[in-house]
Write a structure and sequence with these properties.
43 residues; mainly beta; two-stranded antiparallel ribbon; 14% strand
């Protein structure tokens, strides 16, 4: 589990509009990572 303030490895994900976004694109800026359960599931 990632803890507050802990460094994470760089990763790349596909954005909803079809291009890729990498965590390294935001180097030097504050970033909030938010994960949620799959849509339309309880919880």
């Amino acid at each position: 589990m990632i803890k507050i303030g802990e460094k994470v490895e760089d990763f790349t994900l596909e954005a909803t509009i079809g291009y890729e976004v990498s965590l390294s694109d935001y180097q030097g800026k504050k970033v909030v990572l938010y994960f949620y359960p799959k849509d339309n599931t309880p919880g």
